[in-house]
Amino acid sequence: RMPIAAFAPVSALGARVHDAIGRFGLFVRFSGQALGALIRSPRATLRWRELAPLLLEVGTASIPVVALTGLMVGLILSIEGYTQFAAIGAERRMGGIINANVVKQIGPVLAAVMVAGRVGGAIAAEIGAMRISEQLDAMRAAGANPVARLVGPRVVACMVMTPVLTVYSDALGAFGAWAVLTQVYGVPSTEYWHYTSLFLVTLDPLNGLLKAACFGGAIGLISCYKGFSCAPGAAGVGRAATSAFVASFVAIVAINLLLVEFMNALTVWIYGGLPRVL
After folding, report:
1. DSSP for 177-195?
2. Which residues of the chain have pLDDT under 70?
3. Is the pTM of this model over 0.70?
């Protein structure tokens, strides 16, 4: 007969899994409440005087870091990949390959990660501070719904501005790759854009913008939930901000995986197969 202590690791693992499932259930319920309030009364939830500053904070204030990071990614990909592509005589196709991946994958993910790090943590900290200072309780006592009042504008701001930031990231990434390949390595500019147009189909930019909107919505919901469930004290606010970024990053990767499968299937259905470029 095995001693009970031998099952302690299994018991601890089970407790952690049970706790994680419970927290996920609370997040789903919280998201349902927030989205339900947004759908039922959008005018009451989305007040322009509250939404406009959030759009500026999420979007305008994030443009420099997103644009700079996108530019660096384009430069790095072209510098790193040129030697390998030149070895097989495919350096003229690099513009299409880089830009297709930037538009469909790197641009949306990069913009979303920047939003999660810069805005998501700030949202969690702001709402967490309101929670520990009992401002949320005061709103409930006054008859207001803090979930509807605080979550809706922040989720919409993230959903609207993350695709806008993605456009900046894509444009600067394409420019960075163009600058290196054409001005440093001598790839003709006409061929750079020619292969870009061949590798990118009409659905690809929409694919990237759809991903960015989904990422932004997830960041907004997760960050608000972490703020509403913040533990008491200044340390709790700090943990909520950190946890918001980590959870948002995991959500970005998971959603990206699901949307890659969905968009590939949609591309095959629309075009009769994935585009092939010889």
Report:
1. HHHHHHHTS---HHHHHHH
2. 1-7, 44, 272-278
3. yes
Strand residue runs (E) in 109-217: none
pLDDT tens track for 171-189: 999 999 999 999 999 889 9
| C-beta of residue 98 within 8 angstroms of C-beta of residue 182 | no
Rg (CA), the chain: 23
Q: Which residue has the tokens 């959030």?
A: 54
- Residue 52, token pair as written in the block: 């406009």
Residue burial 247-269, b: 16+ Cβ < 10 Å; e: rest: bbbebbeebbeebeeebeeebee
* Best CA proximity match to 118, nearest among 201, 223, 46: 223
Token look-up 């904070």 returns 57
* Residues near 264 by beta carbon (within 8 Å), at least 6 away in sequence: 274
Say how far apart CA 82 and CA 221 lie, in whole Å.
40
Give the tens place of pLDDT for each residue, 67-78: 999 999 999 999
